[in-house]
Amino acid sequence: MAQPDTAWDHHPEPLAVASAPVPEYGSGSLADLLPTLAAGLGVPGMSAAISELTPADRNCVFLIDGLGWEQLRAHPEDAPFMTSLLATSRGGTGRPLTAGYPATTATSLASVGTGLPPGAHGLPGYTVRNPDTGELMNQLRWQPWAPPGPWQPYPTVFQLAHEAGVHAAQVSSPTFENTPLTKVALSGGRFLGRLPGEDRVDLAAEQLAAGDRSLVYTYFAEVDGAGHRFGVDSDAWRGQLMYADRLVQRLAEQLPPRSALYVTADHGMIDVPFDEQHRIDFDEDWELSAGVALLGGEGRARHVYAVPGAANDVLTCWREVLGEQFWVASRDEAIAAGWFGPRIDERVYGRIGDVVAAARDDVLIIASQREPNESAMVGNHGSMTPAEQLVPLLEVRS
Q1: Which residues on adjacent β-strands are paired with residue 169?
Q2: pLDDT at 68 over 60
Q3: What does residue 49 show for φ and ψ, rounded to 5 degrees?
C-alpha cells in the first residue's frame, strides 16, 4: 500500500532551462532595430529583421532607460502621449520588442548599437569575468579598464550607415562622449552632447533634418535612476516618466518631413521587497558561496564563476537551493537554449558564468558586502520575465 506524501518527502523539480522565455533574437529584439532601419536606408549588409516596420528616409531612435512595456501600460495618466502611441508599437501591431538577455543597460545598448545579440557583441552582463585577466569587469563603468576594440570588435550600425553616406548622429549627455561603452556600442557619425532634455530632443530633430537620409539616436536616463533608487510607481519615478513623456511629444512635434520616430527602452524593472525571503544574500549564504571564485552579473541575472573543478558542484547546489525561483543553467545549457542569441563568439564564451541564474520570481541574489550599492536598490532588472524583458517600440511618422 502506497504511503501518503509527507513534507520531508517532497522534492520539487527545479525550473526547466527550456521553460525560460528566450528573447526574440532575429525578429523582434532590440538587436534587430537598427539593422532594420539601416536596411530601409540602403546601408549595405543590413537586413530588415523586424518585418513590421516600414522604411523611412529619416529615422530617430529615442531610448528611455528603464521604461519597460508593462510599466508604461500601467501608468497611462503619467504618460498620456506615449500611451496614445501604444497601438503604433512594432509597426502598428501593438506588440513590444524583447530586450535580450540579460535585460540590463550595457548589454542592451551594445545590442542596439551593433545590431548584434549579446553572444556576438560580447557584453553579456552587468559584470562579467575577463578571461584574459581573471578579474570581474563592470561593463557599464568599464572597470577595470580593458582595450575596447578587442573587447567588442564589430562596427556599429552608425559607423556602417555613416560609411554608406547616411547622416548618423548621437545626441546624449556630454559625459558619455568618450566612454568605452559609447565607443564599442554607439560610436559612428557625430556625437553631440547636451545636458537639458529639451535641448537634447531639439537637437535630435535638427540632426534628423540635416540629411536626406538620417539615422539619429538620443537617450534619457532618469526614469531608470528613479526606479533603482525609489522604485517603480514611486512619486519620483512617476515624475521622471511625466518628464520623459513631454520630451517624446516635444520631439514628435518637430519631426522634419519623411521621418519616423521610434521610442523604445533597454529594459523594464520590478520592485523587490526588502526581506530575507525576497533578497538572498550570497555573502551570508555558505551553500551558495561554496566553490564560487567570482560572483558576476546582478541580482536577477547572475554569472557564477566556479573555482577550478567545482563547476558541476556549484550548478547542483544553486539548482537545489534556487531552482524553484530561478532558471539555473550551466554555461553550455544557457548557450544551447539561446539565452544570449543564436551564436556565441569564441572570445565571449569565457565571459559567461560557469553557472547562469535568471530570476523568475520577485527575488534577488544580493551581495551585501561586495555590492552594497546594488544590494540597496529598490527597483531591479536583468532577467527574462515580461516586466523586465518587454520594451515598447512606439512610432510617430511625419
Answers
A1: 190, 216
A2: yes
A3: -70, -35
Per-chain mean pLDDT for the chain? 96
The pTM assigned to this predicted structure is 0.95
For the record, the C-alpha cell of 30 comes out as 532590440
Task: Tell me if residue 210 falls in helix, strand or coil.
Answer: coil
Give ∠ CA 34-39-42 in degrees, rounded to 5.
Answer: 130
Query: For helices 33-40 and 105-114, what crossing angle results, to 10°?
Result: 20
Asked if 166 and 213 count as a contact pair (C-beta separation under 8 A), the reply is yes
Show contacts of 332-337: CB within 8 Å, 24+ apart: 333/17, 334/17, 335/119, 337/17, 337/18, 337/20, 337/22
C-alpha cell recorded at residue 162:
555613416
Q: Are the C-beta atoms of 297 and 303 separated by less than 8 Å?
A: yes
> In which band, very low, low, confident or very high, does the pLDDT at 13 lie, cut at 50, 70 and 90?
confident
Rounded to whole angstroms, how far apart are CA atoms 326 and 278? Answer: 12
**CB neighbour list of residue 172: distance below 8 Å, 6 or more residues apart:** 182, 186, 191, 192, 193, 194, 200, 217, 218, 219
pLDDT at 79 over 90: yes
C-alpha cell at 16: 526547466
